[in-house]
Structure formats: C-alpha cells, structure tokens
C-alpha cells in the first residue's frame, strides 16, 4: 500500500524531502502541502505534483489524513506543529533542530500517543556510520578511547538577514543548535550515552544574538572523552569526526554529506589484519542524506516498528545541546539528567540569557 505524506513548509529543505519521497515511488507520495507563502507553495506543488495545498496546517489536517507529516518549517514552529499532528494520531518526521528546548521535547512526548515523532538526523544512515555502529564492542577495534567532532563551517553576514536566524526565540541557538547538531548526533549514535560536559561559547564575529562558536569536552559512560567544536566563522569548511579505539582510528572527513570514500581506517601497529577484517564486510554504497533516512522511516510505517531516531535518541542529542549552553553560560560542569524543569536551561537554551546580551 502506498503511504501518504504531507509536507509543512516548502522552502529549500522541503526540496530534499520531495527528492527523497520521489526516490521511493510506489511506496509513498506527497498528497498535500502547506506554507504561508502562497507563491512558494504553488511552485512546490507544481514541481512535486502535489494534488492539494492549504494555507495552514490546521486546514490541512481538517481535510487530509496522511500517514506521515514532514515538518520543514523554522525550528520555533516545530513543537506546536508536531503536537497538532500527534494529537490527531498523525506521525511526524521533523527537521533539525527538532525543538528549541527540553520542555518542548517533553511536551511532544506527552502528545505522541500511538503516533511516532522522529527527527531528521540523516548522517546516521550512510553505510559507513551503519558499519561503524555494527562494530560496537568488537574486540578487534578495542574499547573507545577518545573522539573528535568538528563542524567548522562559514556563514556570511547576509545569511542571518533571514528573520528567524541568529535568534534564541525562533532558531533556538547558533551553530551548536542548528549546524553542528548533525555531526555530534552521529557522534552520539556511535559513542552512546554521555555523562558530563564542560564548554565555552562565544559570539566572535556574526551579527547574531546567539553564539557563532562553541567548544565542548564531553565524557561518555564508556569512559571515552570527545571534543566538539561548532562554528560558523571558519572560511575553510570541514566536517570532521575521528573515533579512536585501542587498536584503530576511524575518520570521517566531509562537509555537508558523506559517502563511503569519505571514511578512512588506520590500524594500530600489529593490528592491521584484524582491523581490516572487522571493517571490510560491513554495509556499503549508501551515502548519508534524506533518501537514506526516508527509506527507513517508510519501513517503520509499513511494519509498525519504532521509527529511526526515536524520542529517546533525540533527547540524548537535545540534552547535550542544552548542557553545552548551560556549562558555557554558567562556567560549571553539567551532568546529564540535571537540567530539570527547575533549571532555566530546561525552558530555553540560553537559560537566563547569553552573557554578551
């Protein structure tokens, strides 16, 4: 049976959703879309052969019963839109960042019911990442020791002329929230639960209310330690992840998306054959991106399985974001699980306010 999908927000990112669903022809189709920009909505409907368009989400949900709604709107709209869908029993696939606070994420969880809420973290789904996660605990690699996760990107000042960018209320934060999130979500999917973070954040150069740079040291339940840098002030752009195990270093070097050739494996002296044997038989040929994740999302809808990137998965990532801001703005170490409703950083990523404001 062909699944029906509705797209909310028809800007640039919605084009990736259109492409991903077109690649699943016969399994799913877009039956409706909505956007406050009637011109953009009409163009999107024409490009992706969307039969029904609506001026707002409420009207769409009043007239349609899609199997899945994909949210491609600014971050500040995600929580109320997700709750509107979930309260009607409609599952949601939401673009990053999924929420602007832990409070919003908990409100979504409370509304979920039998429907699911999944987050678009497409870097989890490239074959290299799947292969590496499949080697968790493999003695041929040895135990996790340390990791590096650097999102060193550049955004010109005019990028922030879009009203919702660079502010806490609608975007929820700077590169820690909206840019580096892809890389360190992938890091967490490999490294597992984090336990503590100490961080700094700064507004170095950009005309924003949010940070344009953050640096964090994160300790994991395994005992491994990682450094995470999130930047939009780095002219030579690079997305770099490095996982050091006792017997191997595994690196991923790309910018906005990776394929198998972006991975590199280096064995410790004396461990070359066993590391090569561990890495060689894994899955191959799938690049990271929306197409890879959408295929798994549709599998979940068809079978009733848990969606890829569940609410607990998402919470691990969102809580790390909140903890980075809390540590950076208070100067304290922050342990996982301590940002509860009595903390200002549970309700807003900037807590009581960024120090430069």
Structural features:
2 domains, globular, 14 strands, Rossmann fold, six-stranded parallel sheet, 12 helices, eight-stranded mixed sheet
Q: Specify the CATH class of the largest domain.
A: Alpha Beta
Number of helices: 12
The name of the CATH topology of the largest domain is Dihydrodipicolinate Reductase, domain 2
Which structural class matches the secondary elements? alpha/beta
Describe the sheet with the most strands: 8 strands, mixed
**Which residues form runs of ≥5 with pLDDT under 50?**
none
Distance between the termini: 53 Å
What gross morphology would you assign? globular
> CATH H-level name of the largest domain... which superfamily?
Dihydrodipicolinate Reductase, domain 2
Q: Strands of the biggest beta sheet: in what spatial order? A: 13-12-11-7-10-9-8-14
Fraction of residues in β-strands = 15-25%
Overall pLDDT confidence: 97
């Amino acid at each position: 049976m062909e699944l029906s999908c509705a797209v909310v927000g028809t800007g640039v990112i919605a084009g990736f959703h259109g492409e991903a669903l077109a690649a699943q022809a016969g399994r799913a189709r877009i039956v409706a879309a909505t956007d406050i920009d009637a011109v953009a909505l009409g163009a999107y409907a024409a490009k992706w052969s969307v039969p029904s368009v609506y001026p707002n989400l409420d009207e769409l949900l009043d007239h349609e019963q899609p199997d899945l709604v994909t949210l491609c709107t600014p971050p500040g709209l995600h929580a109320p839109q997700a709750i509107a869908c979930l309260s009607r029993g409609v599952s949601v696939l939401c673009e990053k960042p999924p929420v602007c606070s832990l409070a919003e994420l908990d409100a979504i969880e409370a509304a979920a019911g039998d429907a699911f809420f999944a987050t678009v973290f497409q870097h989890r789904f490239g074959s290299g990442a799947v292969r590496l996660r499949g080697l968790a605990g493999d003695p041929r690699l040895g135990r996790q020791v340390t990791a590096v996760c650097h999102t060193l990107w550049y955004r010109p000042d005019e990028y922030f002329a879009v009203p919702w960018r660079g502010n806490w209320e609608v975007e929820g934060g700077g590169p820690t929230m909206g840019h580096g999130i892809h890389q360190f979500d992938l890091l967490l999917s490999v490294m597992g639960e984090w336990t503590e973070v100490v961080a700094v954040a700064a507004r170095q150069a950009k005309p924003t209310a949010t940070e344009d740079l953050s640096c964090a040291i994160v300790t994991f339940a395994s005992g491994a330690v990682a450094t995470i840098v999130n930047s939009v002030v780095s002219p030579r752009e690079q997305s770099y992840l490095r996982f050091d195990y006792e017997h191997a270093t595994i690196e991923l070097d790309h910018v906005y998306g990776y394929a198998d050739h972006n991975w590199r494996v280096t064995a410790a002296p004396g461990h070359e054959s066993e590391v090569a044997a561990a890495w060689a038989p894994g899955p191959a040929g799938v690049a990271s991106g929306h197409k890879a994740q959408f295929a798994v999302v549709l599998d979940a809808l068809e079978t009733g399985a848990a969606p890829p990137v569940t609410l607990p998965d998402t919470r691990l990532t969102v809580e790390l974001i909140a903890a980075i801001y809390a540590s950076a703005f208070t100067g304290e170490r922050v342990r996982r699980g301590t940002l509860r409703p009595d903390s200002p950083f549970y309700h807003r990523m900037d807590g009581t306010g960024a120090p430069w404001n």
